[in-house]
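*** Protein under study ***
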Amino acid sequence: MAAAHAPARRDRRSARLSADGAPRREYHRHLFGGWWSGPLQVENTPAGAAGRSVRLRYIDALRGIAALLVLWLHVVNGYHALSPATAVQGGWLNELFASLDIGRIGVVVFFLISGFVVPFSIHADSAAPVRGFAIRRFFRIFPAYWLSVPLAAFAFFWIQGSPFSARELLVNLTLMQDLVGVRPAEGVYWTLLVELVFYALCIALLLGRSLFSPRRLAIIAASLALLHVVAMFMQWLGKPVASVTLAFWPLNLSLMFFGALYRMQATAQRDRDASAILPMLGIFYVLALPIGAALAIHKVPTYTIAYALGFIVFIVGTRFVHIETRLTDWLGRISYSVYLLHPVVAELIYLWLLRQPADSAWRTQQLVVYLAIVTLLTLGAAALAYRFVEAPAIRLGHRLASRRERAIASDRTDVPRDAEPATT
């Protein structure tokens, strides 16, 4: 009888072997139907050249949606009190957007996209991966940011007669204002500093040969999420170990590392331990975070709902509903300029409206009218900024990075003349 069952056991064992005879790992797929480990429409080649020119259209759509969500929250929140009529007509919209915190939903989507994209933009097979990555990221972030800083200083300070010194302006140009206690020219800049820290962590992990290790990324993402829980729990106990602002840093970085891990696990670089941690992180963002907060303070903080919804939007947009249209392609391309310039456009229009009589038609429109006007004008301004600032800077960054990589590769392949063996 034992002999009769031997072939069956051998068949089952051979089914668990890959084509080269190595054990084939089995992955957990029972939670959520394996949404984190099925195939994604990406080229996951962090160390190769094949994926460098690949642009993910559905990611552009998510970028555009995220930027619009941030814009809409700020406009509705600022314009609903433009006049008594506007407050009455648009009160429900302001309450809805505020209760969902749609701006934070957009920021969460941005952070997840950064993790999904940025590590895989490092040319790890080049002669100078760190230098090339730093050059490309610098020209991707700073030129458009530099454009927005004086415009924001003008719209929020100078035009209203408020002081904003040359020192504050210069510090803002470095993007280090939050670290040295200087006022930001506009409030959305804080997310860019989080991005820079994530870039630095990616470089450190690359140098430590850990950036493309799913297991290590899973441990990092889980540890950062745990740090946020501890920091917020101590806040609720009245024994803070960190400020509320600082407590959100590990949560945001955790989302970024989740985005990178999610892409790895959904393509070829799967790992058993990471496959177990990844769905647990999803459960944490969507369920454990709001439920735990509710148990601790007897109410569900708005931010926990926003983080959960932002996470769901990202998963749905990458896994189930791929939006790929020319409009969303365009919105994705200009989304960074939309994010940077919408406060300036909204503030300038708002200041002009305040100069109009309170009962005039200019100040008594439906809130959605102002929302549409600011959105359209912002898209126009962002399109110009992208064409004349962002796109040229991106091209320049890629040229400089490629030139630097080629130069270093050439230096390494050149053999000094005096090092050549003598001939007889």
Notes: Residues 53-408 form one domain.
